[in-house]
Amino acid sequence: MNPIETRGLTKHYGRFPALKDLDLDVRPGEVFGFLGPNGAGKSTTIRLLLGELRSTAGTATVLGASPRDVAHRRRLGYVPADLALWPTMTGRQTLAFFAKLRGGVEQRRIDALTERLDADLDKRVGELSSGNRQKIGLVAAFMHSPELLILDEPNAGLDPLVQHEFWAMMREAADEGRTVFLSSHTLSEVERVADRVGIIRRGELIAVEEVAALRRRRMRHIELDVDAGLVAADVEAVAGARDVVVLDDRVELNFDGDMAALLAAVSARTTLRDIHTTEADLEDIFLTYYQDQS
Ligand SMILES: Nc1ncnc2c1ncn2[C@@H]1O[C@H](COP(=O)(O)OP(=O)(O)OP(=O)(O)O)[C@@H](O)[C@H]1O
């Protein structure tokens, strides 16, 4: 049995369908990125998986049990999107409280995680910045080495160094056979760490892909500074080139083909002076590849 399985999982808030007919299998030992824009239904899904919300229809199984079965809670680690901790307790007191609740947490595990994330355990939680408060939540989620980590936009507010450490922690957990369910609205974040990604939009899961496959299909926006001599047709002839615009000394296009082929085609006609590429954002990927399914 997979750590997370849902069938036809549906949630309406009043008449509003926030989640429609979700069929999802998250496999053991993978980091599964759950990717979608704001309001797509990510937190709703997570709250259903945790038994915080009741589904309108369909089923969810988490670690082989119903989400409402509290007995399996200690096998879970969870970081909510809106982490609420007791503001008057210090980080140390907060972690000690959670450790006692769960049992079996080694102090040196807490110490190691604290050091890795550079968390401040001495300040009252209410006095910490949101990023530093988030670190306390992450230590709490990881400290009992749970079988399944459910993380709702956990990167919010972390600085780049800490983010790297946190990505490494997720990868290590997966390498040890634990499962990570990571929600995010940022493709670049998810693709660094996830094995597979599910893309959700307006309450519907529109694709589940291996990250490697998604990366291969990713559209880039490219700007080339060139000398004169190039015409749009030269660039349009390269497979994967779209929306080509040639100005005097500048070419702009969207591209999902082989970069070497593009550069060779350009260099055959003119001198290439500079290249600027930007990754298409999530919305562009949706529009490019999933338009038919919307
Ligand atoms: N308690 C609620 N009552 C009514 N509508 C709600 C409620 N909670 C969420 N919604 C709506 O359901 C939709 C999905 O919300 P959800 O919080 O699951 O999205 P999300 O993908 O987590 O977004 P974000 O990235 O902004 O956190 C949104 O349109 C939201 O406005």
From TrEMBL:
Xref: CDD domains:
ABC_DR_subfamily_A
Q: Which UniProt keywords apply?
A: ATP-binding, Nucleotide-binding, Transport
Keyword ATP-binding applies: yes
Q: Which residues form the ABC transporter domain?
A: 4-227
Name of one Pfam family that matches: ABC_tran
Q: Which SMART domains match?
A: AAA
Asked if the Swiss-Prot or TrEMBL record annotates the protein with the keyword ATP-binding, the reply is yes
Q: Name one GO molecular function term.
A: ATP binding
Entry similarity comment? Belongs to the ABC transporter superfamily.
> What is this protein called in UniProt?
ABC transporter ATP-binding protein
Organism encoding this protein? Tessaracoccus defluvii
